[in-house]
Amino acid sequence: MEYDREFLTGTVGVLILSLLNEREMYGYELLREAERRSSSAFQLKEGTVYPALHHMERSGLLRGRWRNSETGRSRKYYSLTAKGRRQAESKRRQWLQISAAMRSILGDSHA
Amino acid sequence: MREEIDAFIEPIVAAAQIPSRRCRDELRRELRSHFEESGLTPEALADAVVRFGNTARIGDSLRTVYRRDYILFYVAKVAACVAAATLAAILIETIASLRLEGGMDAWRLSPDFARAAGFGVFLTLALVAAVEATRAPFTWSRAVVSLGCYAIVSACALSVTANSVGAVATASVLATIGVGGARATTAWTSRALLTLAAFAVVEYVLHQSLGITFGPIRALAASAILLMLWASTITIVAFSDRAFLGAFRKT
């Protein structure tokens, strides 16, 4: 399903922080994981995710390190820093409050 | 396949305007690794390219991320340019102020050296500010910052010596003419002659209006020294521009 861009603005950061809060991932893995977990509802553009990852890394929320996979392929894995973990938790709380407020306005039948 | 991936990645890396070679290489490596993950068949690559989105927009997003580094690098370039041009101006004014005295066996600096060197440095700063303010593509922010910095330096000079108003005004007028002259034609000879003539006219008219005896020959001689300052500054700016742009092309 194609979503209105306005709805998705600001969700990329929350998605990245939430997924990386579970384990470290590389860019491609992160995209596929978001797609799989949302049953393809979130088909993020790679062109959106990589600038967001670099922005978060430079802001000190993520740490990137190169590592070889079992297949010998070199990948840049991202993990959360302590600051990133705090940010992930804060964003998660805010998101739950917003979605609860939206549900109460739209009604459960629309949620 | 590697060439096709690189052909897609390179415009993104270039548009990102990342000053650090290490960061550029890392971005290349990461994007390359992404496409390799997507699959190396022509169909998989075509699909990955479509999913990736518009290269210009991705480049813009990455440029925003690395904006602070770019600005710092740009400021360092201008500072290096100002330092080199100032040194060159002092050297030119020193050579121009040397006089043979004491039975032609001793070189001395003319009594006017300090004033001439100060003016030379000021003209250099005005030229660099004018070049940066009017650089293509024109942006209001760069013009305001360049002219603002020049205004601050002028205010500092005026606070030290109140009678430097004339020097500030003259340097500003000459810098405007100098930048106009540098862009008037592409041939160096015609640029130099045009600028020399304009400088001489300004020097002559200015001194006449102040009631100072300053003939056309003297105006031309003074302008020849100013022209050397102009030429050295314009050359240093062009060289630093090439070095700046070249830094982004290094792989």
Helix content, binned percent of chain A: 55-70%
Which residue ranges of chain A are poorly predicted, with pLDDT under 50 across at least 5 consecutive positions? Answer: none
Total helices of chain B: the number is: 10
The share of residues in extended strands of chain A comes to: 5-15%
Structural account:
The complex is a heterodimer of chains A (111) and B (251). Chain A has 111 residues and is of the alpha+beta class. Chain A has one domain: Arc Repressor Mutant, subunit A. Chain A contains five helices and three strands; from the N terminus they run ααβααββα. Chain A has helices at residues 5-8, 11-22, 27-37, 46-58, 82-106, and strands spanning 25-26, 62-68, 74-80. A three-stranded antiparallel sheet of chain A has the order 1-3-2. Chain A is globular, with a radius of gyration of 15 Å. Chain B is mainly α and 251 residues long. Chain B contains ten helices and two strands; from the N terminus they run H-H-H-H-H-E-E-H-H-H-H-H. Chain B folds into two domains: 2-65, no CATH class; 71-249, no CATH class. The two termini of chain B are 20 Å apart. In chain B, helix 1 packs across helix 2 (21-38), helix 6 packs across helix 10 (216-249) and helix 9 (188-209) crosses helix 10 (216-249). A two-stranded antiparallel ribbon of chain B has the order 1-2. Chain B has helices at 2-16, 21-38, 42-52, 55-65, 67-97, 113-133, 140-160, 165-184, 188-209, 216-249; strands at 98-101, 106-109. Chain B is elongated, with a radius of gyration of 25 Å. At the A-B interface, helix 4 and strand 3 of A face helix 2, helix 3 and helix 4 of B.
Write the layout of secondary structure elements.
The complex is a heterodimer of chains A (111) and B (251).
Chain A: H1 5-8, H2 11-22, E1 25-26, H3 27-37, H4 46-58, E2 62-68, E3 74-80, H5 82-106
Antiparallel strand pairs in A: 1-3, 2-3
Helix pairs in contact in A: 2-5
Chain B: H1 2-16, H2 21-38, H3 42-52, H4 55-65, H5 67-97, E1 98-101, E2 106-109, H6 113-133, H7 140-160, H8 165-184, H9 188-209, H10 216-249
Antiparallel strand pairs in B: 1-2
